[in-house]
Amino acid sequence: MRPSLSPPEARASLRLLRAPLASLALVAAVVGSNASCRTFAGWGSFNEAACPGENFSLTDAFIGTFDYAELREGHQDGKFKVVIKSGELCKGAKNKQTCEAQVAEAKATQGWSNGSGGRMEGFMYLVATKDDGVTVVDQRSTTTGQALSPIDTPAKAAAVASVTYGIAPDCKNSVRKVGSAYEVHLKSESCFGPREEIVRVFTAGNMELVKEERGSASCVGALESRPAKTGRGS
User: Fold this and answer.
1) Among candidates 97, 112, 124, which has minimal Cα distance to 13?
2) What is the 3-state secondary structure (H, E, C) of 171-197?
3) Which helix (H) or strand (E) holds 23?
């Protein structure tokens, strides 16, 4: 599932959301395989990665696109807790009022689907921090792929690269500054085979794949022929 690079964020996330349910369960195993990272992946609505020494977690939130009845919960480790239920993002936020205002603004600017037709018109990346609760770090249109806010910190770059490529950062050597961009080192091992990628993330949100190495997979062949599910009841 190699993301397209024009724009990678929108198309990769769309493909992830439309992947078979069984393969999404395996995505959780892939991104959670790095022992130095704590990672959780839900059914197209939640993907969180946190590294020691990095005060952030990642939520890839598709807001109002599908009517999820399941409760999605982030890890609780004294720093943060993120709760998503039926498209609600702010129950676990430290500053609920600020979070709700940010979500409302995102919905207004992005034109979110109401979920009835299974459409996705926009999405955003959220970072949950110790001090701020849930903070919008990157909103973008699935049509243009352009970020509405700059990707200007290592945490933002790691968050965007991780969810776009579907694996967690290598916590030992995750992000380095290269000119005005950030290079994010992504690494995992699972039955999908070893996978290592270096992604350069620019301020505007566009990305460049600098390096990609993959080993042979042992568990994905049976999943690729299954029909995709795009939401509850589909």
Assistant:
1) 124
2) CCCCEEEECCEEEEEEEECCCCCCEEE
3) helix 21-31
pLDDT 10s digits, 129-176: 333 334 444 444 444 444 546 677 776 777 667 666 666 666 566 788
DSSP 3-state of 141: strand
Strand order through the sheet with 207-214:
175-178, 181-188, 195-201, 207-214
Polymer length in residues for the chain: 234
Asked if residues 123 and 63 have their Cβ atoms less than 8 Å apart, the reply is yes
Expressed in angstroms, the distance from the first to the final Cα of the chain is: 22
> Which residue is listed with tokens 């005060």?
55
Half-sphere exposure of 23 (CA within 13 A, CB side): 22
Assess contact for 30 and 192: CB atoms under 8 A.
yes
